[in-house]
Amino acid sequence: MKNTPLLVHDWNNAILHIDADAFFAACEQATNPSLQNKPVVVGRERGIVTAASYEAKRRGIRRGMRLSEVKKVCPEAILVTSDYEKYSLFSFRLMEILRRFSPLVEPYSIDEAFVDLTGLRRPFHASYEELGLMIKTAVRNELGITVSVGISLTKTLAKIASRHQKPDGLTLIPGRQIHHYLSVLPVGEVWGIGPNTAAWCAKLGIHTALDLARKPAGFIQRHFSKPFYEIWQELNGTVVYPVNPQPKTTYLSISKARTFPPTGDRLTVFAHLSNNLEDACFKARRYQLAPQRLVLFLRTQEFKECAVELKLTTASAYPPLLTPFFEQGFNRLFQDGVWYRQTGVILTHLVPAHRVHPSLFDDPVRLEKIARLYQAVDQLKAQEGLNILTHGLAPSTSPSSQDRLSIPVFKIRV
């Protein structure tokens, strides 16, 4: 019984799951060659490990570990501040690579995606394994990171396959081989099955994924709810969750926050908040959105928050046009003598940018210059990475200065 396959057809469908290896740390290593092959730990600003490179993991560093423990376990660990906009940009480029192979790509998280490869062997003149290798090679050559790939008949099986050989792995689970992989997989490690369900499975004598897959449909329907019946179907090679290529293009809001060592310096806090504004506006422009309202918040060293919401006269995702409101809000929030540890910006009441029309009081020449400038800025960031440019939005004296910048000054990293 256990040696017979669940399916006699190998490739009724072909779904690929791609999972980037140590994604945040890998992005840091890709953009900074001096970090290659070194134990990199992301999360310096939070005081705990957000992500760790495989070099760091091999030395015993795990996610959630305090940085004070990291230095004891691995004194040579390199601590890096998280740069989520950089990781978002890498994710965007990863999805673009996948769409060159198939129009059916579903981003699952910032570092994971599903791709429907069904029927692509003939146009690419390649097997599904060769297609997987082609994708892995393209990602490595263009992004400088490695990914683990799994290919099988359903999303659930593809996700099992991608975890089989991490990092930098490629695993195929055709129909006739499903039982071999499920027989050694604890049921609690199946995508969608948590600890409570795994404990219930144990009471029913189900310990492995294969135990679950071989149960009759009636048994599953009697003892489990609909989502777990769907998982059972997927384990048996029946597609219940098709690849959904519709990307997320609408947002209720866009927020960016930054944590840093506590400081009471007015200009430093203002500079961090300015970076939040640039990052949030960059994302809004990517999705061709413009905010009608702007929320600023500061968090003190004692973790107390203060915030202000500002209504804009004209919706815009160009920071120079938001600067008067931005400075006004900052001056209302910042208190001398108080130390701050986090800043944040939220863009709300978002509308499609093409529906925004300038008011009678806007200078059309200035608006055109700003639009052209940021078109070049966005293109450079998309090609070279988010940190290729930093801005000089903060005034040289104080945020309340009368000398506001009509167009921001950018510094180029070389």
Features:
Alpha-Beta Plaits, 4-stranded antiparallel sheet, alpha+beta, Dna Ligase, domain 1, single chain, 2 domains, 15 helices
| β-strand number | 14
Distance between the termini: 63 Å
Give the oligomeric state of the chains in this entry, treating copies of one chain as homo and distinct chains as hetero: single chain
Largest sheet: 5 strands, mixed
- Rg calc: 25 Å
Biggest sheet strand order reads 5-6-1-7-8
CATH architecture of the largest domain: 2-Layer Sandwich
Domain tally: 2
The CATH topology name of the largest domain reads Dna Ligase, domain 1
- CATH-defined superfamily of the largest domain: DNA polymerase, Y-family, little finger domain
**Count of DSSP H/I helices:** 15
Mean pLDDT: 87
Structural class based on helices, strands and sheet pairing: alpha+beta
Helix content: 25-40%
Low-confidence stretches: 393-407
Anisotropy-based shape:
globular
Q: List the secondary-structure elements in sequence, H or E.
A: EHEEHHEHEEHHEHEHHHHHEHEEHEHEE
CATH class of the largest domain: Alpha Beta
Q: What fraction strand?
A: 15-25%
Brief overview:
With 414 residues, the chain is an alpha+beta fold. It folds into two domains: 15-162, 2-Layer Sandwich (Alpha-Beta Plaits); 253-412, Dna Ligase, domain 1 (2-Layer Sandwich), CATH 3.30.1490.100.
Q: Overview of this structure, please?
A:
It is built from 15 helices and 14 strands. With 414 residues, the chain is an alpha+beta fold. It has two domains: 15-162, Reverse transcriptase/Diguanylate cyclase domain (Alpha-Beta Plaits, 2-Layer Sandwich); 253-412, 2-Layer Sandwich (Dna Ligase, domain 1), CATH 3.30.1490. The strands form four sheets. A five-stranded mixed sheet has the order 5-6-1-7-8. Helix 4 runs antiparallel to helix 6 (128-143).
